[in-house]
Amino acid sequence: MRISDLREINKFIVFFLIAALSVVNQLFVLPAEAEQEIFTVYYPPDKIVMEFDILGISLGVPEGSVDLIRVNVNNKEVANINPDQEYECLSVPLETGINTIEFIAMKGDRVVDCVIREVFRRSDLISKYMDAPPDFKKDYFHMEEHLQCTKCHALKPGVYDKKPIGPAAFSAETFDSQTVIAAGSTCYSCHNKIASYPYVHDPAFVWSCLSCHDPQTEPKYSVKKPAAEICFNCHIEQKKDWSAKKFIHGPVNTGKCAICHSPHASDNPFNLFKPTWDLCVSCHFEKGNGRHVLGESFSTEGHPTRGRQDPIKIGKELTCVGCHNPHASNSPHLWALNVQSFLELCKKCHYDK
Ligand code: HEC
Ligand code: HEC
Ligand code: HEC
Ligand code: HEC
Ligand code: HEC
Ligand code: HEC
Ligand code: HEC
Ligand code: HEC
Where are the domains of the chain? Predict the structure, then answer.
């Protein structure tokens, strides 16, 4: 048999299979009712990487098509919306690692559409979440023209978004109400949740977003890593003070200010990503074992590192920074309180001993 004959036979088989399949299809496939496509998810795309714990979302929903939209993140309901316009915008909280976001459209008690997006939240403080899985990519929202959004939102930055950072920008009266301050911000309408934490970094508090995010950079608004250069633009005194010290803490020396501090806002004093003790122990995990200082060479219990009053910082809890400076020091163990020797350190708090 020649090759061309084989091809003919193959063609015939394929033709026959297709014909047979289409008959089967007509017999068994139900009308595609349950799986209509109602949503358009304008943002986010699937499998993107985020650095922070808030994600802005924008959905398109044709009017009258849906009674209720349920939004679940990792099976927890985070929003429940009665759509009344063609666009629904919201923000959702993210956990570290992979987040599964479900958008469920209900008509009566029937699910009429369901769209799923996966978003990876990276973290430098947890080694298993430092790198995104290979199929997840960083996405830059502001690199594209989003004409759909400009119907309702301004996207072009204005003068208000870069306030001069001098004492005037932070004068007492501007702090009266954050809503009043934010009213002039272009960024506020979409990023309003970024500052809604108990502790807000001052330039973020006054919505001077462009004091760190330059629209001329590529990708747009990106911040050079590590962040120290940007931080030291304003924190000039700290720069002078720390660089004059003999020993600089590892992550500070490599410029990674934003590994410990949120540049925007957080649940903790000094905009730290975690309470101080937890922050230190996320890298120095062996110091969380309760045997630090006193218990390491003797088999006694260690020195308390939390849960007690700090005798020097009155009204505050004793933590790692009671004895260590988180940035720099003239002692190799980064002792705080300007001491040079072990005994000198102890005496700062135990002077009667
Ligand atoms: C039809 C008008 C309209 C369009 C178009 C629109 N938005 Fe919105 N968006 C709004 C309104 C109104 C709010 C304020 C929502 C509120 O406070 O309830 C908002 C708020 C937001 C928020 C903040 C949500 C929150 O948690 O408060 C984000 C993020 C957002 N929009 C993103 C987008 C993006 C991205 C697009 C384009 C893909 C877009 N929007 C298009 C009207 C629109
Ligand atoms: C139309 C809504 C909208 C407005 C207005 C807006 N952003 Fe965004 N921006 C987004 C969304 C959506 C994302 C991606 C998801 C997220 O970060 O929540 C984003 C992401 C970013 C990022 C991360 C990098 C990137 O491109 O994804 C930066 C930085 C940023 N915005 C800064 C700003 C600044 C500064 C302003 C004001 C000058 C601003 N944005 C105004 C919607 C908006
Ligand atoms: C003090 C400097 C500073 C200010 C002020 C600031 N940012 Fe940022 N922002 C940063 C840095 C640094 C990063 C990158 C953090 C990282 O990845 O290490 C960042 C990242 C972001 C991201 C990306 C989040 C992600 O998940 O990838 C968004 C969105 C953003 N900023 C929005 C804003 C908005 C809106 C404002 C105004 C309220 C603002 N920023 C003010 C320094 C700043
Ligand atoms: C545009 C100027 C500006 C930039 C850039 C800037 N800061 Fe600040 N920061 C301030 C001002 C103003 C204050 C409040 C006054 C003060 O404490 O110096 C402040 C306060 C702080 C505080 C103390 C908060 C408190 O509760 O006492 C920390 C921590 C901080 N900044 C960290 C950073 C880090 C980390 C960066 C870089 C990601 C950075 N800053 C970049 C202006 C800036
Ligand atoms: C290892 C974590 C860590 C890193 C990295 C770090 N900080 Fe801090 N920072 C802290 C802690 C913890 C405090 C609070 C100290 C306290 O409670 O007394 C603090 C306090 C501050 C303060 C307010 C008190 C002060 O000393 O003025 C500023 C400003 C500040 N940091 C800026 C920075 C800048 C800028 C960088 C990068 C060059 C940086 N930090 C890097 C942990 C860190
Ligand atoms: C992001 C990881 C990270 C965090 C968070 C961190 N450290 Fe460190 N720390 C390092 C690295 C890296 C070094 C330098 C390597 C070394 O000497 O172990 C270091 C060194 C030190 C040293 C000096 C060790 C020596 O050689 O004597 C002390 C003390 C210290 N850290 C205390 C702290 C305290 C207190 C905190 C919390 C405010 C903290 N660290 C948070 C990474 C971290
Ligand atoms: C009561 C004071 C005190 C407290 C609180 C304290 N340390 Fe220390 N730390 C010391 C002293 C003293 C040393 C010198 C090492 C030694 O001789 O035990 C040291 C050494 C270190 C070192 C470097 C040497 C080594 O053993 O690896 C690191 C890292 C460190 N401490 C981290 C921490 C962390 C993280 C915390 C909070 C969980 C903390 N320290 C709380 C006093 C303290
Ligand atoms: C920043 C303050 C501070 C420094 C520095 C400090 N301690 Fe303490 N120490 C405390 C506090 C607070 C307690 C808990 C006291 C209590 O609960 O009544 C404590 C408890 C102790 C205890 C347990 C006995 C007791 O009184 O409960 C010993 C022993 C001790 N410290 C030894 C040391 C030694 C040795 C050093 C020097 C390496 C040192 N401390 C440095 C604050 C400090």
Answer: 40-147, 159-246, 274-347
